[in-house]
Predict the structure.
Amino acid sequence: MVQRKRSERVRRTLLRARADFILRAAMTSLHDPDLAAADPAIAALIHGENERQRDKLRMIPSENYASRAVQEACGSALNNKYSEGYARKRYYEGQQFIDPIEELARDRVKALFGVAHANVQPYSGSPANLAVYFAFCKPGDTVMGLGLPHGGHLTHGWSVSITGSYFKSVPYSVRRDDHRIDLDEVRTLAMQHRPRLLFCGGTAYPRTWDFAAFASIAKDCGAVLVADIAHIAGLVVGGAHPSPVGHADVITSTTHKTLRGPRGGMILCGPEHAQAIDKAVFPGLQGGPHEGSIAGLAVAAKEAGTDAFRAYAHQVVANARALGEALAARGYDLVSGGTDNHLLLVDLTTKNISGKLAAKALDRAGIELNYNTVPYDPRKPFDPSGVRLGTPAITTRGLAEAHMEQVAGWFDRAVRAAADEAALEAVSAEVKAFLGDYPAPGLSV
Ligand SMILES: *Cc1c(COP(=O)(O)O)cnc(C)c1O
């Protein structure tokens, strides 16, 4: 009797729980609140970031504003889809729309750069480079790249990177006197060490890359030449920097820097390396590609093929040059004496302020950049002698050479007033008011 009562109670509890579950499931499927309703904390933080990007001179040279169209493509139902493999050779069903999206991205990138093959699946610039190692190297092989303290990238064999611990890295440098890459040193080291991969490209090198000279060295020492154009991809397609196509065996890049696309990476090459690269990306290194980002890249590649984008790329360089001249006129010491591209490296030693203190003061003054080592820096990387700044993002907002005097003036005031909070705030207010006339694309404020 007691036992029968208890099982009846259990049965009722289970029924109630099941009814409750079905009701909640029905509610969630009908009720799909927007971000502000679902997660006010995250919504408020994103709103704050939008305002910050609206109100500041964003001068970190690797950053930009992606268009609304690019961002819409990225944040879509494509995020829900798995598509391991390549178009028409997938491991999952339901690729009726994914395949043409990835093919459009790939074909537009190929046309934009004028290459035979493009892999648009790398999640970002670093995985793109790792895939190249996997395609061509065995652990322990020798690789060469510009040393990190001289403007190279971590993934070109720097010690703390996986590329510096699984491979034997021989970094090359810039000259002490003019801060240009020492091609004689590159050749000597390359002939001596016979690297499997020779990287050219960097993150803080303000000068033009001589891809033909690197190609000749790579040919003579038997290396695969990898041009990493992460920073300058937009300048290359816009005709504002020479193209590595025809010189480099493989080209890697991010898609979110001067190219103004979504966060992502890509690898370009001729037909002879197409299969090795594709195999290295998938199944070698990655699983399912981020098709939302790939759709965003398709949109960005379409935008980058326009005359307006060509004009943009040239304006980026013209602005950087004008800014460099305006800073030099105020006594700032530019690494290599100036710039050929979108970025400037300023050595603040003669201004008696460290790069970090200056960067923090500039940020409070509404000028966002980063502290950076300068070549042969006597200071530590966490508090180096320089700052790095560039013009890609402010040029996207429509600033031109004529504005660079003004920007240099604010820069100078902020560096001089690094300890004066009120003065920094005054600059920040002026910057914000000025930028009101130059709306940024893609922001939701
Ligand atoms: C930015 C950059 C990368 C890495 O890109 P992530 O997207 O940050 O992984 C690689 N190489 C160079 C030269 C870069 O400037």
